[in-house]
Amino acid sequence: MSSAGVDGLLFAHDALSTDVDVCRAHARDVSGLELVPNGVARPRSVAEVADVLAAAHASRTFVTPAGLQSSTTGASITDQGVLLSLAALDRVLDIDVVRRTIRVEAGARVADVRRAAEHAGLLFTPDPTSEEESTIGGAIACNASGARSFRYGATRAHVKALTVLLANGNRLDVRRPALEKNTVGFPMAHDPVDWFVGSEGTLGVVVEAELGLLPLPEHVIGLAVPFASEHDALAFVVAAREAAYGAGQASDVPTRVTAVAPRCLEYFDGRAVELVRAHDTQVPWSPDVAAIVYTEDAGDHAHDTDTALDAWLALAELHQAMTGDIRVYDGEAALADARRLRHAVPSTMNERGARYRSEGGRKVSTDWAVPYRSLASALEMAHALADAAGIERSVTYGHAGNGHPHQNFIARDADELVRLERVLYATLTRVVQMGGTVAAEHGIGKLKRKWLPLQMSQVQQDVMRSLKHTLDPHGLLAPGNVL
Known about the structure:
Blueprint: E1 4-5, E2 8-9, E3 16-17, H1 20-25, E4 39-41, H2 46-59, E5 63-66, E6 82-85, E7 92-96, E8 101-105, H3 110-119, E9 122-123, H4 136-141, H5 149-152, E10 159-165, E11 171-175, H6 193-196, E12 205-212, E13 214-215, E14 221-227, H7 230-245, E15 262-269, H8 270-279, E16 291-297, H9 305-318, E17 327-330, H10 332-354, E18 362-365, H11 375-388, E19 395-399, E20 404-411, H12 414-433, H13 452-455, H14 458-471
Parallel strand pairs: 4-6, 5-6
Antiparallel strand pairs: 1-2, 3-4, 7-8, 8-12, 9-13, 10-11, 10-12, 14-16, 14-17, 15-16, 15-19, 18-20, 19-20
């Protein structure tokens, strides 16, 4: 089954296919790019993954690990060597309800892991919107987060142990240390788990993970709070965060407001609201709604939901919310409906972007973040740069509680894409100057590699290259990702 490729000879292995249709079926993710691999390996066990990697290492063939290919940055596609699909390694292996851990294979869907945990009376907190189309391996590879990361943190915080196969197929088992104090060696070497979380397949192939779980909240209510002003909506986000968790709570916030316990604070600008309306014509919001903040309160309200609702209403009134149009989501079915409405925004933009691929266009998305109090001024800056360049303003939504919006633009052709990239360069330059990051949750992949020097010094990049060389000395894993 050997086939010549840009990386030398592809190896012969039962799990490998060089069929043109199979390769083209694995050539796209959500980034809008199309990269056709020279071959696709679809192993069905950890042992087969190790065999594939060993054979690729011997023939010096590039290997790019992938799950369900929901990456927005091109990290899960390649036109160099073999695309290694881990989708068949999809088992939930076991759950320990006493230790509150779950052990899974890398190809397990994030949503399936969440459901398995809930069945055991526990909570798996990472919740990317694409949880039905993304795998645990992918979530670990880009340190995925989601709405609930506002309270619980991103994937990294919940990874207890990993089984990783290195570029040569050798197995490496790593577990977080239980030590409270340690001064042996450089801090960067203390916890090898962190080498792989967020490494986007460049350092090793995660095949199994042990993940931490939490108790299920007694009761969760969702609220969609509409505003006639985007400025008021963003001020409400800051007030809700500080009422719940401190950090400079304003003296004029009533004491009763501190009863709020948000696990997410999601923002939708007017353009995003229009997409939600188009997706569900039964949504009862007034045409005057300019922005919406969606929150889920996961406090201890099992017997006193009214107290939580009263606290949110008081905070909403302080920030000129359209309180008569607040929508409450109570119960799992209602919360799932709210999640589907939220997912309608990026999925609609993905569909729109796909229409322009043949003209050299695509959807262009950002996941920059700034300190949360700076979000309003950062968005004002970003909109001004787009306006000055004659670029249609983005659909903006996302994790405002963390100072982390998603801007979704549509480039209709190659020329508009170039203009958009210039606007993004200017935006990200200023974001970094504000103490922000060019990528908060989707990783760097291939699309954002050019932005890395805006944030990381040459010394930082050299340190990453040194680790890459130690673990993958021939540079065979995930070519083009990150570095």
